[in-house]
Amino acid sequence: MTETTGARTGARKSAPKGVQIERIFTTEGVHPYDAVTWEKRDVVQQNWKTGETIFEQRGVEFPDFWSINASTIVTTKYFRGALGTERRESSLRQLIDRVVLTYVAAGKKHGYLATEEDATLFEHELTHCLLHQIFSFNSPVWFNVGTPSPQQVSACFILAVDDSMDSILNWYKEEGFIFKGGSGAGLNLSRIRSSKELLSSGGTASGPVSFMRGADASAGTIKSGGATRRAAKMVVLDVDHPDIEEFVETKAREEDKIRALRDAGFDMDLGGKDIVSVQYQNANNSVRVSDEFMRAVEDGRTFGLRARMTGEVIDEIDARTLFGKIAKAAWECADPGIQYDDTINDWHTNPETGRITASNPCSEYMSLDNSSCNLASLNLLKFLRDDDTFDAATFAKVVELVITAMDISICFADFPTESIGETTRDYRQLGIGYANLGALLMATGHGYDSEGGRSLAASITSLLTGAAYRRSAQLAGIVGPYAGYARNAEAHQRVMRKHQAANDTIRTLDEMDSGVHRLATKAWDDVVRLGARSGFRNAQASVLAPTGTIGFMMDCDTTGIEPDFSLVKFKKLVGGGSMQIVNLTIPRALKKLGYQNEQIEAIVEYIAENGHVIDAPGLKTEHYEVFDCAMGARAIQPMGHVRMMAACQPFLSGAISKTVNLPEEATVEEIAEVYQQGWKLGLKALAVYRDNCKVGQPLSDAKAKSGSAGAGEAVVEKVVEYRPVRKRLPKRRNSQTTSFSVGGAEGYLTASSYPDDGLGEIFLKFGKQGSTLAGLMDAFSLAVSVALQYGVPLETYVEKFTNLRFEPAGLTDDPDVRMAQSIMDYVFRRLALDFLDFETRDYLGIHSAEERARQLETGSYTADESEDLEDELANFSQTPAPKRDPQQGQVPAVENARAAEVKSGAGAAAVRPADADVHSSAELFEKLQGKAADAPMCMTCGTKMRPAGSCYVCEGCGSTSGCS
């Protein structure tokens, strides 16, 4: 995209200036809606705990490649108009048109789009990108733009409060209006006098912590009153405030209260009826630390706490002791987080206007007091070509398109307060970012915690912000720089040069990140050159937000900068059922790493069974890191998260919404080290969460069952003892003997069955007669045979002995079991194939060669399973579902819907029915790993949420605990 220069006519009259829009995806003469296939769906949403239908709208229209989850969330969250009326939106076309046409009209009105051709192309390109889930605006845009409601487009707000009762009460009011609109706000309370200072009347001040109680109660009330989503807020206090110790320990003390009340029998679970009596639970707390304080911690010196009115030191504390209290409180309850004040303000483009003192609730937006930021995020996986290279040129073009639209929105946007509106219009802060980084890194064979992964992420982030500021400089030449630019021009250009210098320090490792980095270098050269000439349209351009609800709208596997949550996902089906699905990114990654189709299929089967890659057949240990996730057996180490944040932070106007997860056994010292390293590595903010550090875990069902007996009742249980009875085989029984070879070692398996075909006896011959190995095989065979006759199910043995790894191992001569990790692995796979029914084997992931071929070619399940599975695979692959043959009750050959699986060799091993008690990926992770995932239950639909940045998001209905 380039500026129009205005061709001169004979009368020397210039054409009107405007942004010349470049065609990226669309075809001339074809509307984006006409290039996709549309289908009608029924959206019915229930609370799985109560069975209550909480939403129902039938016959909604979406493209056939949109998943059920995405269409459900868009229908329930973003469609406007009363249900059951003609004014209710019922198609994605209506939603996109409502937003895009408003942007186009404003673009023409305010001089961004000079010609009708540019306006039409702008409309079509935006529509295509939204339709194909290439990017999404933040939720308030979808809530409000094009409706009779105020046109609020911002998700993030920063407020200001001074040391007066008028200001404090105004804080409560302004927060309430922001929460009511479904957004979040943050502020710094450090201007309020401490409880150690005097009032002019001679009394002692209350201190900021006391005023936090009122604001907390207000947020809790609005949250409970049925707002668009839960209130989200951030409270910041400077480390030199005299009440800092009280602030640090506030939520930790409340957590002690929760424990005491729980032990006394009160309902203190998340969402419980008694938890509302606990204070300070509706805000994230952060301490704003300075370089002076952090150096005092390093040196073991004292640090002065200063009076708010005079600035004089009124108390001295040991810096290490206070830092230890911060780490201990975070260890106990995950609060407070840390914000690094000097780093934040060193990258501030508007220091002449004022310092940055606070952030939004998720800590990614950091700017002036009484300001706001609207967000948009790009889906990185949409820029990965079929040959697994990143299309950096198209990525940069889309960034410029989106940043143009975001700036246009400020021209027509409404704001909750006049002061916020004035600051935002004067400084025009934007927050473009991305989602699906974790999936992109996995698909390209990069470990999240690896030098290659960090290099690629840094290069992409640098290109993101460079392209955004380049477009901002171009816009400044067309419609003028932001109003506050003149007084901050030198500082703004200095920060641009800092970004450019940071880009020069990136060390690329392969052609992919080198190609992205070359374009980023060119972008930053343009930024510095154009900015010096025209200035900039926007004071800020980029952040990395949680992308909770909009991440589901774009069908993203991962949110924001986060790694993948787990390797196996929960997925809803068209007919209302559900499946557990191995991420489709995994087969693509395995193919990129050089594995063959048979190996890929075996590894995917293993992941489907176990939820991790440890000891997966044929997977090299050096490739394990590519599949490391946020949770599970190979969870990414805390410093891996910090290092990834540090790689991307120098290329962002704002900061990063992310929580560093630590295991339950992590120590206070380890949390202190994470906070210390965050400062040294140049982060702007950091939050941590230690597993099970909070009492409010979703255990209400278990507690209700255990506490069902009335108080004081003596529960007498009748004890019945059951003993197994041996069922011997008849004297004459059917047997079959199988010869086999595993890794070149030969053996024989004889299996005898009961008259009703149940396995009752096995004999294994392996090794020379009389050898130790032969004796062990005889003893093992006898032990298994007796156990089978006492009723131990064969599937129990199959579960225990398949995937057992020892030599000899390798290729076999059995066409149904091509690879075996050991003799035991082969034997029990063979027994499963011979004696277990298909449904049981399918659950265990064991199929014959014929079944695997049938699943790949015909999807041969039962008729009911085929309908659900085929629709799901079509949605998941983003291609139309094939026509079914009603005569056969099976699905005919699938050419498009399963193309990704067939090419990868993963087959149908990636998909299997989910258990009835699993309703989200977090619950599926718990079932596979046997370990609780720390996350709240959704207050709307009862589903367990999962982390999204420093917030949580519900896979069931899209509700979030944050502001994205």
From TrEMBL:
Its cofactor is adenosylcob(III)alamin. Residues 154-689 form the Ribonucleotide reductase large subunit C-terminal domain. Its EC number is 1.17.4.1. SUPFAM superfamilies: PFL-like glycyl radical enzymes (SSF51998). The keyword Nucleotide-binding applies. It catalyses: a 2'-deoxyribonucleoside 5'-diphosphate + [thioredoxin]-disulfide + H2O = a ribonucleoside 5'-diphosphate + [thioredoxin]-dithiol. Residues 729-833 form the TSCPD domain. The keyword Cell membrane does not apply. Transmembrane segments: none annotated. Residues 43-133 form the Ribonucleotide reductase class II vitamin B12-dependent N-terminal domain. It comes from the Bacteria. Keywords: Cobalamin, Cobalt, Disulfide bond, DNA synthesis, Nucleotide-binding, Oxidoreductase. Catalyzes the reduction of ribonucleotides to deoxyribonucleotides. May function to provide a pool of deoxyribonucleotide precursors for DNA repair during oxygen limitation and/or for immediate growth after restoration of oxygen. This is Vitamin B12-dependent ribonucleotide reductase. It comes from Kineosphaera limosa NBRC 100340.
